[in-house]
Amino acid sequence: MKRNLCGLGLMILLVTPLISLEVDLGDSLQPLMSSLTAEDFLGKDNLGLWLENEYYVYQLENLRIILSMNYYPFAVLTQKGEQNVFLVDYDGDSLFDITSQYLFIPPWVVNHYSTGENTKDQISEYLDNSSIAFQSDEAPGESETMLSNGRMLVETAADRDAEDRIFFYYEYLYNYLYSRKEYETAYYCLEDLFTALGSEINTTLLIYMVELAYRMNQMEQAKQINTMLLQNYPDFIPGQVYSYLLSEDSEEKENIKNILLNEHQNHWMVLDKVK
Fold first, then answer.
1. 3-state secondary structure of 118
2. Contact of 166 with 114, CB cutoff 8 Å
3. Residue 80 confidence (pLDDT)
């Protein structure tokens, strides 16, 4: 899956002058917290609202340029056809290679302003708790474990001094983008978190990646990831459910269905997806 270099011509025009921007912006540079309105930006409930003073807005002719505190631009609000969109430098490489209807702060900006250590201890606990919850019969929305995890996620991602903040931010951003059906960019967050954690096999991350690939109709990719998941964790029920959903062999599909209905008939995913 390749990252979409849409608007490439616009990117080239933007990158050269903005990276070397050294003029005094003066009063034209406003803190985003004081200038954000529904008319200014799509997605008013964006992540920046709880990352106060980590980025600014600069108006340049008909463009609104979003800059980090060190004036490094990471997003541009512009028009694509008749639609307002953001072009985002997701990787910090001066390429505005992600198009989004919603403003979000890319992970490299958050990481720049984070002061806590990255030990992997907190994120490992979080992901392990999620895996246990996904394996249980109780639906995640009704699970106290998942509710507690959700509070931990928001608090840690918002705290500059928190341990493992950048790992939690990847997870938070994934949820933010997923809920807005921006699945491809959400997938990048999972890929980057997977890489940042040393590409260790983790049931939570892999089942998220399977689900996103499935939603994007990337069926072969979903099968490959799900196969890797089940090779390491053959008893993981969500993975077995996706084996059922992804199978194109009617006999195999029926066998998986019978096993799930006989052995895990009360599991929340079996109740929802196995018919």
1. coil
2. yes
3. 73
